[in-house]
Structures are given as C-alpha cells and as structure tokens.
Design a protein that fits this description.
Length: 427
C-alpha cells in the first residue's frame, strides 16, 4: 500500500500565549508549513516579555532552590521592599509551591536540574541568530558578556562563586576592582571585584524582539487572535478551544501561556505547580556616553541587574510572591534606583520619580519549584504540547524551545534530551 504524505499546511495549530516563548513556537511551526494561529488575551509581547532585563542569561545554570535560602525565609515577611518578598496574605496559597521548592534544594536534585538547565542554555543564543537575521533584527542582540559585581563579599566567597561557575563549564573570568572599572568605567568604586561571563548577550529592546519575530511569523502566514482561552477540550481528531469570543478547532494546540497556564491544564487533569514570581523594572532616560554601560551588570548582594537599552538604562529584578491578581507595588521599582546609586558612579536623573510612571513595570515570571520549564507533549493528550514555566529565562530559552516544539510535532528526534522537562515529573 502506498503511504499518503500529509502536507503540513493541511494541519492547523493553535499557540496559546504571545510572549517570547509562544512567538518562537508560532514562528517555528509556521516555518515548518503548518497553519498557525497565535492567541493571547492582551497582545504581542504584552506580558512578562515586554520590559524585562533583556539578558540572555546563559550563565544561569544553577536552580533557584539554593539551600542557603532556608535561613532567609523568616525575613521575607519583614521587608516588603527587600530583594525577595513573600506577601503574608498570599503565604497560605504559596506554601505547597514552597514545599516543593525546598525539596528541590537536595543536592541530588540540584545536580540533576542544573545539568538540564545547562543543556537548554549552552547553545540558546545560537538558535536565535538565524531567526533574527531573517527578521532583519540582528542589531537587537549584543554579545559583550555580562558582569556580576561584588561590593562587600569576602575574597573567599567571591572565589567560591567563581569556581562554582567554572566547574559547571560556564566561561567566566574573575576580575579585580581595577580590571572591572577598566571594562565598565561608570561603575562605582564601591565595587571590589566581579565575575565576567564572556559568552552572555543582551538585547537593547527585548519587546522589539517579540514584535520583529511575530511580524516574521505573520509574514509567513501565521494569524493572531486577541482573546482569552477559557477551556481546552481534546478528542481523537484534535483539540477544541473555548475562548471569550468563540469555539475554535485545531489539529494541535501548544500551551505557552506562562503563569496563566495552571487553570488551563487543570481542566485537562494535570497538576502544574507554577508560581507568578513578580519582577519589577524601572527605565531611566539616556545619559552621556561616558556614563553608559556596555553590558548588563548584576549586583551579587543587591539582587538586581542594570542593562543598557536603546532608551537608556533599565534597572530590573527583585522577587515578589503575591499571585496574579494583586496590584503592583511600584515602590519596589523605586528601590531599584536606590540600589543603582550604590553600583554606578553616575546615574541619570536625581531620583526614581524622574522616571514617568509608564516607565515602571511589573511582570509575572512563570516559575516552577525546580527551576526547569515544562516542555514536551502532554502525556495523556497526544495533540497537546506544553512550552511554559521558563522563570527568569524566557528570553534566553525562547528560540530553542520553539525549535523543540517543532521537532516534537513533526515527530523528529529532539536535539537535546527533553525528558527532564516533562510535566509528568509533577503528575
């Protein structure tokens, strides 16, 4: 019997979520010849992808579940403007997630999770290069590395961190104060040393990357629907999506809705222990060239990052656990300015209020307790695929995630082992 070859263009695929992950999935699938519909309740890149730090953080191969955090948990409720804050009102809802987070502090789990993160990160930037070239957006990524700076940490602590990264295979240099200031002259003399991650990149406009890659997908035939998906149904011929506007039928569906994915997957019978880890950013106006930075600078002690952007400087960071519904506390964005005053020699503006309210932003990072995203085919639904939970690394891992989803749907061997990212680890 002659085997009938099915043209990909005959198959319709929905991608739920138009952040950097969903956009990359849609672009890859449309490039493979499928008819893709990208669906989002807000718009292209309007969620966590819009005003993040723009850091292609390939050096971040260590899970966030660090045993030393156990000693700081009691302080989380006491300082609402500290680098990490857990809302007292939200604590009961967050306890199950934190329970799993603590379990993942075990040395055996950290080693396994770190190995999986490294497989995603090590070539993540290379996956972006052909996409940005095709989208005529190559200038949106700069490969000048990044710095992790130290103010008061002991030499022993700094050397231990340096060896930690080096032993993990991360390309890093240990710089003293003079070497650090030579690389970034606008850093404060408070800085005593730094780790220089030479293979890291950043974007001068991460939102523009979303827009450019989405435009390329639309140019290839992808369509966009602005609607909220309320329910996913699965049957032998495909998937049915109930939105706020209509019911849509597809052959396959990719769930890439980040922190909002939990309820969608619950209707399918999957437990998704995901938390909205709220991060803030503050944009500052342009400054003279000698007061600019050439690469992202993160503070080891203050837990925030400064990234040179097209518009000036972006201060980003902090971690806040308060759920999806609570309004933003923009005082946390203002604190970023105070921290930057201690890290930079000269900072644009006199205070945080010099930045317009529209330049203060809060986004919901979709975080899993083991710091690994969920990528793969849904175990009990062959036409549903998952691409979510990338925590601080959505921008970094966007292109490789899109490539993996494409390989899965066309039944090709994935380029990396994706077993550690299956949702079955929680079900």
């Amino acid at each position: 019997m002659t085997k009938i070859k099915i043209n990909n263009s005959e198959k319709k695929i929905a991608v739920i979520g138009a952040g950097i992950i969903g956009i990359n999935c849609a672009l890859e699938l449309q490039s493979l010849g499928f008819q893709v519909t990208l669906i989002d309740k807000s718009g292209i890149g309007e969620g966590c992808s819009k005003a993040n730090a723009g850091h292609f953080a390939t050096e971040q191969v260590f899970p966030l579940a660090e045993p030393s955090l156990l000693w700081t948990f009691p302080k989380l409720l006491l300082d609402p403007l500290g680098p990490v804050f857990l809302s007292a009102a939200y604590l009961p809802k967050a306890l199950p997630w934190f329970g799993q987070f603590i379990i993942n502090m075990l040395a055996s789990k950290r080693a396994k999770n770190s190995k999986a993160l490294k497989t995603l990160n090590q070539n993540a930037i290379n996956y972006y290069k052909p996409l940005l070239k095709e989208a005529k957006a190559e200038k949106l990524i700069t490969l000048k590395g990044s710095l992790l700076v130290f103010e008061k940490s002991s030499d022993k602590t700094i050397k231990r961190q340096f060896m930690h990264y080096k032993n993990a295979g991360v390309r890093v240099l240990l710089l003293n104060r003079q070497q650090t200031l030579l690389l970034e002259p606008n850093l404060s003399k408070n800085i005593n040393a730094s780790l220089y991650f030479t293979d890291v990149g950043h974007s001068v406009d991460p939102f523009a990357i979303c827009i450019k890659l989405a435009a390329l997908a639309f140019q290839k035939g992808c369509v966009f629907k602005q609607a909220e998906v309320l329910h996913i149904s699965h049957n032998n011929i495909g998937t049915s999506l109930t939105t706020t506007q209509e019911i849509l039928q597809f052959d396959h569906t990719v769930v890439a809705s980040g922190a909002w994915s939990k309820n969608l997957l619950k209707t399918l019978g999957y437990n998704l222990p995901i938390e909205a880890e709220r991060g803030y950013s503050l944009d500052l106006p342009p400054c003279k060239k000698e007061y600019q930075l050439s690469r992202p600078v993160a503070s080891a002690e203050r837990k925030f990052i400064i990234t040179p952007m097209k518009h000036g400087l972006r201060l980003a960071g902090t971690v806040e656990y308060a759920g999806l519904k609570k309004s933003a506390n923009m005082n946390r964005a203002d604190v970023l300015f105070k921290n930057a005053q201690q890290v930079l020699r000269v900072l644009p503006g006199n205070n945080a209020n010099d930045a317009k309210s529209s330049q203060k932003w809060m986004g919901h990072r979709p975080s899993m307790p083991d710091s690994l995203p969920v990528i793969g085919q849904a175990p009990n639904h062959e036409n549903i695929y998952l691409a979510l939970g990338h925590q601080h690394l959505g921008l970094t891992q966007g292109a490789i995630t899109g490539k993996i989803i494409g390989q899965l749907i066309v039944k090709k061997q994935t380029e990396i082992d994706i077993r550690p990212f299956c949702i079955s680890r929680f079900n």
